[in-house]
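Need C-alpha cells for this chain, all 304 residues.
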Amino acid sequence: MTTTQRFQGQDLLRVGHDDNYLLLAPAHGGRLVRWVHRGQDILYWPDDADWTRVAKIRGGNPLLFPFIGRHFVDGEAGRWRDSAGAIHELPQHGFARDLPFSVCELSADAVSLSLASSAQTRPGYPYEFVFTATYRLVPDGIAVTLRTRNTGDAALPPLPYYAGHHFYFALPHPARAQSRIVMPPASRVRQQADGGLTAPEPGEPAYRLDDPRLQDTFHVLQARGNGDAWSVCVELPTRTIEIGLDAANTAPWYAVTTWTERDDSDFYCVEPWLGLPNAIHHGQGLRWIPGGAEDTATCRLTVR
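Here are the C-alpha cells for all 304 residues:
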C-alpha cells in the first residue's frame, strides 16, 4: 500500500506493506530516507537529521545527477567546461539532491519520481531532460532504475551525463572489522586534488570494511560481455546485501565507490556509479544521449 507517514516532523511517502516498506522524500531531492526489510532498517538515517539542509544529511540514498563527484576547471572545483569552451557552475554530485521531484507513478509496491529541466537547472547544465528514479519492492529486496531522457531537439548536441547512487548502509562502526565486501573484477582508482585520476591498481576479490584501501576509492569494473551482470556483496554481521548491477539492454555500470565519513560513523557507503568524477573532462564513464533518446540503468539489492 502507499500512504503518507510522519517521520522526524516531515510527511514522507510510504510504499510497501507491514514490515517491508520504503519512506521517500520527493520534495527533498527524491531522497530514499528509509528502507525497512523484515522490520529492520537497511539504510542509515541520523536521529538528529537537519531537514533544512537535506542534501547534507548523511543517510538514505541521495540521487546523484547529472554528474557524480567533483568536477574541476583549472584546479577549481564546482565548475565544468562544455565542448564549446563555456564554463558552467555545478555543485558536487550535481543538483538533483537539492531539488524537488514529482511523483509520476505510484502503486502498492513501486514509485517513480522525476526531475525535469527548468530555470533552476539550465544555468549549470544547459540541456533539456527528464531524470526519473523508480523504486520497486521485489522479493527479498528492491530494484532501482535510473532513467535519463533527453527531451531536447535531435538537431541539438547530445546531452552529457553520468548518474549514480549513494547508499548509506547501516553498520555500527565497531563492526567494520567483522564485515567485508566481495567485489567483481575491478581496478582501484582515486581522484587527485586537481580532479585527475590516480593510475589504476589491481583490485582484490574481497576486503574487510576497515581496510584503508577502500576509503574514497572507485572500483572500476572490468568490461563484460553483452548482457552480463556483476554482483557486489556487502557481508555484515547481521545480514548480507547483494547489489546486482544489471547490464542487459541498459547503460553499463562503470564503477562502485566505497566510502565512509569518519572512524566512528555508523554507516558504510557502497555506491554504483555510471561514470567517474570529472568524467566530463577525462571521459571515463561519460555518456551522451541524443535528443529524443534515453538511457536506463538498474541495480537490484537483495537482503539475506
